[in-house]
From TrEMBL:
<dbReference type="InterPro" id="IPR007527">
    <property type="entry name" value="Znf_SWIM"/>
</dbReference>
<feature type="domain" description="SWIM-type">
    <location>
        <begin position="57"/>
        <end position="90"/>
    </location>
</feature>
<keyword id="KW-0479">Metal-binding</keyword>
<dbReference type="GO" id="GO:0008270">
    <property type="term" value="F:zinc ion binding"/>
</dbReference>
<keyword id="KW-0862">Zinc</keyword>
<protein>
    <recommendedName>
        <fullName>SWIM-type domain-containing protein</fullName>
    </recommendedName>
</protein>
<keyword id="KW-0863">Zinc-finger</keyword>
Length: 720
């Protein structure tokens, strides 16, 4: 195929969106103006290049297409001259996107687009690992392969096959358009550093989504050379990657040793030297890029310091849970290392990174004021992204000691972004955020560089149609039972929010003894799901609002925005707002909007204030445990007592016998994983920790334990 024919085949797939992604919309507008005035011709045509003369400038194309065209002007990137030349060639071939006869040729073009899309599909699937490594380098390919392995394809990758292929990474909010050529032909819709590795990741994600097994990266130099014994004097120098790998291995072994020694010594007998070792290991973990491990080691160091100071918040049992959790993380990191993997969900992030995006369309769906146990007050707004079908939040918080900040007043004050008169004005409306900064866990920054354009949608039905709702409670329970099965699964607070569509709402009632409002919700099968709001000053208004709805009939199709939490094996939801399909402003913010009438809550409010529990407590009555959970609890307390006393050489045999007896009892009633525990671990203390981890994993599956000890330290109900 000649160069011109190859170029025309690629250009036939380009539309205005593709050209805008290649450069930007401003340059595209200038290119169309140049087409009307400039004198354009082909000055050179050969097998390896085609040069288009455009006034005083010359644009040179090769077989890689417009993405690698070069212009004689001083511009460092794709300029308006390259766009002008590409569009001129496209039009000259009779393949203009804006062809006036497009309607007549619609059937033929549809067939042509389908054939073109199939050709692109085949080309992407046939790209070899060797070509991708050549494009991004070995380290770039290794990064891309690991990046794709960490993706949940159904949720994290969107694919579109039309006249060209679109590959979108949802969480990174990066889209690639592929119109032909090699991996370099993938056009990103935003500027990215080291774009080559992202282009390779897009190809690998497309291949993996289509069932192709990906070629694993080559082993590091260490694994290739470690089989060769050159002697100490002639050993090969370690590169940075090998040095870091060795440092991580030594770190994990040191952490495992310290955890074991803590249990051998006894958690009730720790010394200041243990505190110093945890602090030192935390610094080491941070330097070795084990950020999640470093965070947990700092947390344990603080806990040990509290124990040594005999602080009231210190608890040996909770410390044992934390140590066990760290042990599980270290084991998971070791297992990943053996497979040549470095999953980010285990390594963690150095800090909460915010990425800037050109535009983001959101729907305002409510807000919540809160007070944390660590002494902060804040206002958090919740948003829904119709494009990504996910929730986002934005928080404005201040220390409780900083006087003058009132979350309820903040709800009606200007901001948090330029163009938004108040958070209250975002409820029930569409926001177009320009320059939005978004963290990896879905939190929006309140930076002043972000601007907001507030738009009113035609009606409430149009607003509601953009939501993904749940109307069957069994599906909701299945979704959340699968969400965090692993004890090491990190919290994803935005995924705890749901849009519920009950078949009918029951009457909300307030229990002054438990200080809790309960609101039953029923689906089509008449299955009940409890919505609960514990009493606090911040929740008082929402309690009154829900109570006032008892005598009202909410219209059919009303949607409840709520946060899901687990209470034992049961799911409970905490209401935030209602979306009314018949209202002018569809969102009814339960925590802020005025109640049409008062409930009996106001008659007892003063008495409730006198008997309110301590801040941060809900006053929930404990539920009866099943025989299975009771057996787990009995074994858990026995293991914790052993860890508190310690495992000395003289008591090792007795501790091992007692441990075996408890594990055998649990295995006999159905907890069969205790039968599979390794028995070749020489140290009794480490066997005790490993057994405790399996026990905590069972409790987690039964809904009896938080998955991360750091969860309890969040300052906002919107954070994990």
């Amino acid at each position: 195929m000649s160069l011109r024919a190859l170029l025309l085949e690629q250009l036939s797939r380009y539309d205005d969106e593709a050209y805008a992604a290649l450069a930007n919309r401003g340059l595209l507008r200038r290119a169309y103006k140049d087409l009307e005035t400039a004198t354009i011709s082909i000055s050179v045509e050969s097998d390896d290049k085609l040069v288009v003369a455009l006034g005083e400038q010359e644009v040179q194309f090769d077989r890689r297409g417009p993405t690698h065209a070069v212009c004689s002007c001083p511009a460092a990137a794709v300029c308006q001259h390259i766009l002008t030349a590409a569009i001129w060639l496209q039009r000259a071939s009779g393949e203009s996107v804006n062809n006036a006869q497009a309607g007549v040729m619609e059937t033929a073009q549809s067939r042509e687009y389908e054939e073109s899309a199939n050709a692109l599909h085949s080309t992407l699937l046939q790209m070899q690992a060797t070509a991708l490594i050549k494009h991004a380098g070995k380290s770039g390919y290794r990064w891309a392969w690991q990046f794709v392995q960490d993706l949940e394809l159904e949720a994290d990758v969107q694919l579109l096959l039309d006249r060209y292929v679109v590959i979108r990474f949802v969480k990174r909010r990066i889209s690639f358009r592929y119109l032909g050529g090699g991996a370099e032909g993938l056009i990103a819709d935003t500027q990215i550093a080291n774009i080559e590795k992202y282009q390779v990741a897009a190809v690998l994600a497309y291949q993996r989504a289509n069932g192709i097994s990906l070629v694993e990266p080559e082993p590091s130099r260490k694994s290739q050379n470690e089989k060769l014994d050159f002697g100490k004097d002639h050993a090969l120098a370690e590169d940075a990657e090998t040095s870091q790998s060795l440092s991580r291995q030594r770190l994990r072994e040191a952490v495992r040793q310290l955890l074991t020694e803590c249990v051998q010594l006894g958690l009730s007998h720790l010394s200041s030297s243990v505190l110093e070792r945890f602090s030192t290991l935390a610094v080491w973990a941070q330097a070795a890029d084990h950020y999640r491990l470093a965070r947990l080691l700092r947390h344990v160091a603080d806990h040990v310091e509290q124990l040594l100071a005999r602080a009231t918040g210190a608890d040996e049992q909770r410390l044992f849970d934390d140590l066990t959790y760290i042990y599980g993380l270290v084991e998971a990191l070791d297992s990943a290392e053996q497979k040549g993997l470095s999953p980010q969900r285990l390594l963690g992030l150095a800090r909460n990174r915010y990425d800037t995006f050109n535009s983001l369309i959101l729907l305002g769906i409510g807000a919540l004021s809160w007070r944390s146990a660590s002494g902060y007050r804040g206002l958090t707004m919740l948003f829904w992204s119709p494009e990504e079908q996910s929730f986002y939040s934005c928080t404005d918080a201040r220390p409780d000691a900083q006087r003058g900040f009132n979350p309820r007043a903040r709800y009606k004050a200007a901001g948090p972004w330029r163009g938004l008169s108040a958070p209250a004005d975002a409820c029930g409306r569409q926001l177009l955020l320009n320059g939005a900064q978004v963290s990896t866990n879905g939190r929006l920054s309140t930076t002043e560089t972000t601007t907001a354009v507030v738009q009113t949608l035609p009606n409430a039905r149009h607003f509601l149609d953009q939501f993904s709702t749940c109307s069957r409670w069994d599906e909701l329970k299945e979704r959340f039972s699968l969400a965090r099965q692993s004890l090491l699964a990190e919290p994803q607070p935005m995924k705890d929010w749901v849009a519920l569509k009950p078949d009918r709402f029951g009457a909300g009632y307030f229990d002054p003894v438990r200080q809790l409002l309960t609101w039953p919700l029923y689906d089509h099968d008449n299955t009940e799901l409890r919505a609960e709001i514990p009493y606090s000053d911040d929740n008082q208004h929402a309690i009154e609002r829900v109570e006032s709805l008892a005598d009202d009939t909410l219209p059919s199709g009303t949607v409840l925005i709520a946060k899901v939490r687990r209470s034992g094996s049961e799911l409970i939801v905490e209401p935030l707002s209602l979306i009314n399909p018949n209202s002018a402003n569809p969102v009814d913010a339960l925590h802020f909007d005025e109640a049409p009438k008062l409930g009996v809550m106001t008659k007892t409010i003063q008495r409730l204030k006198r008997i309110t529990t301590k801040r941060g407590e809900t006053g929930l009555a404990p539920e009866l445990m099943t025989s299975y959970t009771a057996a787990l609890e009995a074994a858990r307390h026995a293991l914790q007592r052993m860890a508190e006393r310690g495992v000395t050489e003289s008591s090792s045999r007795q501790v091992l016998s007692e441990l075996s007896r408890h594990l055998e009892k649990l295995a006999n009633i159905g907890f069969i994983e205790f039968q599979k525990l390794k028995i070749d671990i020489p140290q009794t203390a480490e066997r005790l920790i490993r057994s405790h981890y399996v026990l905590l994993q069972y409790r987690n599956l039964l809904g009896e334990a938080p998955s991360d000890p750091m969860q309890e330290r969040g300052d906002s109900p919107f954070t994990g």
